[in-house]
Amino acid sequence: MSLDREKQLAAIEAVKYVKSGMTVGLGTGSTAAHMVKELGRLVQNGLEIVGVPSSENTNKLATELGIPLTTLEKTNGIDVYIDGTDEFDPYMQLIKGGGGALLREKILTYNSDLVIIIADSKKEVKRLGDFKLPVETIPFATKKIEQLLQKMGLHPKLRLKDGSNFVTDEGNFILDLDMAHVSNIQLLESNLKQIPGIVETGLFLDMADIIIIGKGETTITLKK
Ligand SMILES: O=C(CO)[C@H](O)[C@H](O)COP(=O)(O)O
Q: What is the ipTM metric for this complex?
C-alpha cells in the first residue's frame, strides 16, 4: 500500500470530525492537501464550513476547491484544526515544518479547540529527531542564531530553495537543526524560544489531541 494512500485514508477519517457550522483550520503539506480535497468534495455536497488556511499554498488549493475562507482574527477561534506532521512519537509529540509553514501552523494549533494530526505510517518514530527540526528565524538575526546553534551542537543548516534562501509566508528564514542527540525536548524548546530572533520552532509539544495514522488499507486513531 502506498504512503500516499495512507495519507488519504487518514485525511478521510479526520474529516469525519468536521460538522456544518464549524470553523476549520487547514494545515499544509501533501497529507493536509488530501484533507482539503476531501473537505472540498463535502462542501460541494452541502457541508457548510469556513476554513482558515495555514499557508498561501493551502489558501490557493482551498480557494480552487470552493471552500469559503477567512482569517484567524475574524474568527472566535477554530473548532477543529487538521494537519500533517513530519514525525510523531509514542507521547504524541511532533516535529512539524517540513513544508515551512510551522509558524502559522503553530498559531492555528494553539487557537483550536481540537487538534487532529494525520499521518502515514512512516511518520511514527520511537524518538523524535531523525527529521531535522525546523526553526523559523528573523532574517536580521539569522546569521548570529546560526553561529549560536552551531556552538550548541545543533548543526543548523539554512534552508534553501532553488539556490536562494527559503522564505516563509511571514518573510522569515528556516534553520534545520540536528536534534538526534538531544535528550530533553522540552528543555530544547524553551532554550530555543529564549533566543531573540527565533520566532518559532517545529516542536509541537502536548498540542495534538488526536493522531490518525493510515496503515495499509485501514487507520489507527490515537487519543490524548
Ligand atoms: O508541517 C508541515 C508543513 O509545514 C507538514 O504538515 C509536514 O511537513 C508534513 O508534510 P507531508 O504531509 O507533505 O508529509
A: 0.99
> If DSSP states are collapsed to H, E and C, what string results for 63-84?
HHCCCCECCHHHCCCEEEEEEC
Tell which residue, 219, 224, 216, has the closest CA to residue 15. 219
Does the predicted model carry a pTM greater than 0.80?
yes
- Give the integer Cα–Cα distance in Å for 216 and 72: 35
Distance CA 81, CA 131 (A): 23
- Could you say which of 6, 87, 105, 200 is catalytic? 105
C-alpha 159/C-alpha 56 separation (Å) is: 19
Residues in contact with ligand 1 (CB, 6 Å cut-off): 27-32, 83-86, 96-102, 105
List, in order of start, the domains of the chain with CATH numbers: 3-124+205-223 (3.40.50.1360), 133-198 (3.30.70.260)
